[in-house]
Amino acid sequence: MTWMAWTPITAVFFTCIILMLIGMGIWQTVSPTVPRRGFLPLITTRGDRLFISLLGAAYIHLGWLAVTDAALWIASIIALLWLVCIMRWG
């Protein structure tokens, strides 16, 4: 049986996801979220916005891979900006 190759980049990616989830859990404990409506067409909580931004980041990366051969870190920066926009104004 062959397992997935865990490269340092893969480890950093999953570590960041885990740290975000831990951070969101601590933030929820310290300051419970209040559902609100931003530019997204639905009422969301912080956790909803994090989930939406992670889905968006996946689509940004997949789209980037589909249309260009440029460095993937550029898509990561775009995805980070997407996360900030969704968390702040979404």
Can you give a write-up of this model?
- The protein is mainly α.
- It has one domain.
- 70% of the residues lie in helices and 4% in strands.
- It has helices at residues 8-30, 46-67, 72-89, and strands spanning 36-37, 43-44.
- A two-stranded antiparallel sheet has the order 1-2.
- Helix 2 (46-67) runs antiparallel to helix 3.
- The mean pLDDT is 90.
Layout of helices and strands, plus pairs?
Blueprint: H1 8-30, E1 36-37, E2 43-44, H2 46-67, H3 72-89
Antiparallel strand pairs: 1-2
Helix pairs in contact: 2-3
Which labels suit this protein?
single chain; 90 residues; mainly alpha; 3 helices; flat
Task: Output the radius of gyration.
Answer: 15 Å
Helix content: over 70%
Average of per-residue pLDDT values: 90
What fraction of residues sit in β-strands? under 5%
Q: Give the SSE order as H and E letters.
A: HEEHH
Query: How is the main sheet built?
Result: 2 strands, antiparallel
Which strands sit side by side, in order, in the main sheet? Answer: 1-2
Cα distance spanning the termini: 43 Å
Oligomer classification: single chain
Total domain units? 1
| Tally of strands | 2
Q: Describe the global form.
A: flat
Q: Which structural class is indicated by helix and strand composition?
A: mainly alpha
The parts where pLDDT drops under 50 for at least 5 residues are: none
* Tally of helical runs: 3
